[in-house]
Structures are given as structure tokens and as C-alpha cells.
Write a structure and sequence with these properties.
heterodimer; A: 177 residues; 81% helix; B: 120 residues; mainly alpha
């Protein structure tokens, strides 16, 4: 119950960030707007990687329900690796944008873009830390309470991060300004 | 929060026609076989490919509605099937979608306010 309430409140947080971006995405210099700098093929691959991490996460939840610790740890680790790949892609994207001259304070567009996608990246990073911590305590067999439920709770957070990216990918990247 | 430890159906060993009826047990949802989740992921990947194709292919007037519909389909699929909202207690769906709908309504009002009152 608490996790769903938390995720509901997270909807409001990302709703605010996405709205702010939608409001300001047209406020940029002519040569440094979303249509000029976004690399859609690259971001599509990143999106695909994050989407597949949702698959590996649900397989980890399934394995935990079967009390199969080895497969649970395997899928949790793969999920964390896919998440790390996504975050790595985001760091590369931010770096290339910065080199093209798009700093955080360059324009209202850049500020709202970096804030929105950066917040999402932080959420993915927190998810990776949760996944690796879960693998660690799972190996020591010291998961408090129902292990399957703990894995499922982390899974809910991870899937939420994925559904937020589904929205960001469409509204921010695919729909031109 | 639903628990998974007491699920009857497990992974690939799930038998679609031979499971205990959990209708009277609150907060319990069934887990599908792994192959089911792989199929869902393949559909999601195909939708993502279709979304991405709009970057190269001109969809004309259908461009925006297509993208928004595909986005909504992906969102609902992940929330319902991967997050198990579909087979879970309705209260969780209400909590999650209430937050989502509230966010959409509040920020539509927010954006409309800026549209109507911003200096031209």
C-alpha cells in the first residue's frame, strides 16, 4: 500500500517536471533546440535497453516467487547492468550536448530538459543501488521478512521508472517542438 | 501489498487450467510463466520500434495521435502486466491511477493558465 502511495506521489513529481519542460521547450536559441541536438536513434536504443530491464526485473520477481535464489540474483544483476547501461548512455548524451554548447543555464529549454531527464537518471541510479543491495543481502540470506515481497517492491519501483521513461521518450524526444 | 510467496502458479511450471482459486484471498495475484513476460516484452519492443519509425517515416496527420496512443498502450501494458496491477487488488490500481490522473489534470490546468495569461 505504502509503495503504491509513493508511486502515486511520484506521478505528481514527474508530472510537474514534464509540464515545465513542455512549457519551456520552445525557449532556446535557434541552433540549440531539441530538433537540432537530439539523437533519436541513440535514445531509441537506450529506451529499448530500459524496456528490456523491465523484462529481466519481472523475471527476477517470478524467480523470487519460486524461491529460486540463484535465478533471482542473476536477473537482479542483469537488470542492474541494463540500468547502468541506460545511465551510461544518459551521461554520454549529456556530455555530447554540453560539448555542443547546451549548458544547464543556456536556456529555459536546457534547464527544464536537464532537470527532467536528470531527475529520472537519479531515480534509475537509486534503483540500481537498490538492486545491488538486494543481491548482496540475498546472498547473505538476510533479507528481512518475506523475500519475494521485498523483490516485488523493488520491482514496482523499477517498473515505475520504466513507465516514466516511456512518457519522457515520447513527449520529450519523439514529438518535435 | 500483495505477497508472492504463497502463489500457486510458478514460472514455467504454471499450469493454466490447474491452479487454486484465489478469489477469496485478498492481495494475492498470480504469476504467469516466464514465456508470457517475454512475449509481452517483444510486443513492447515492437511498439517502441514503431514509435521510433515516426522519426524517419512521415505519418502526416496521424503522427501525434499515433505516438500518444502507442505511449498509452506501452504505459498500460507495463503497469498492468509487469507491475501486476491487472490481477492485483483494485485498491492499488485506484491509488496509482488516481495519482496519474490527478497529475494530468493539475498540470493541464497549469499549462492552460500559462497559455491564457502569459504575455504575448
Amino acid at each position: 500500500m505504502a509503495m503504491w502511495l509513493f508511486l502515486g506521489s511520484e506521478c505528481l513529481l514527474f508530472g510537474g517536471l514534464i509540464s515545465t519542460y513542455m512549457l519551456y521547450r520552445g525557449r532556446h536559441p535557434a541552433d540549440l533546440g531539441p530538433d537540432q541536438i537530439f539523437d533519436i536513434p541513440f535514445t531509441s536504443v537506450s529506451s529499448f535497453v530500459l524496456l528490456m530491464s523491465s523484462l529481466t526485473m519481472v523475471l527476477a520477481v517470478s524467480a523470487a516467487a519460486q524461491k529460486d535464489d540463484r535465478r533471482t540474483n542473476l536477473w537482479l544483476t542483469v537488470t542492474a547492468l541494463l540500468g547502468a547501461t541506460f545511465v551510461g548512455g544518459q551521461v554520454y548524451e549529456f556530455t555530447s550536448f554540453y560539448r555542443e554548447g547546451l549548458g544547464f543555464t543556456s536556456s529555459l529549454f536546457s534547464s527544464s530538459f536537464y532537470t527532467l531527464t536528470g531527475f529520472h537518471g537519479v531515480h534509475v541510479t537509486v534503483g540500481i543501488i537498490m538492486l545491488m543491495a538486494l543481491v548482496g543481502i540475498n546472498k547473505r540470506s538476510s533479507v528481512p521478512g518475506d523475500k519475494a515481497e521485498v523483490v516485488e517492491l523493488v520491482g514496482l519501483y523499477w517498473h515505475f521508472v520504466d513507465v516514466v521513461w516511456i512518457i519522457i521518450f515520447t513527449l520529450v524526444y519523439l514529438i518535435p517542438s | 501489498m500483495s505477497t508472492t510467496a504463497d502463489h500457486v502458479e510458478h514460472g514455467d511450471h504454471a499450469d493454466h487450467g490447474d491452479h487454486v482459486d484465489h478469489a477469496h484471498e485478498p492481495h494475492v495475484h498470480e504469476h504467469k510463466p516466464d514465456s508470457y513476460y517475454v512475449k509481452v516484452a517483444l510486443i513492447l519492443a515492437a511498439i517502441t520500434a514503431l514509435e521510433t519509425s515516426t522519426y524517419w517515416v512521415d505519418f502526416g496527420a496521424f503522427f501525434l495521435p499515433t505516438l500518444l496512443i502507442l505511449m498509452a498502450i506501452k504505459f498500460v501494458m507495463v503497469a498492468s502486466l509487469f507491475m501486476h496491477l491487472k490481477g492485483d487488488d483494485k485498491i492499488f490500481s485506484y491509488l496509482f491511477y488516481t495519482g496519474l490522473i490527478l497529475a494530468i489534470l493539475v498540470y493541464m490546468a497549469f499549462l492552460a493558465t500559462f497559455r491564457f495569461f502569459s504575455p504575448t
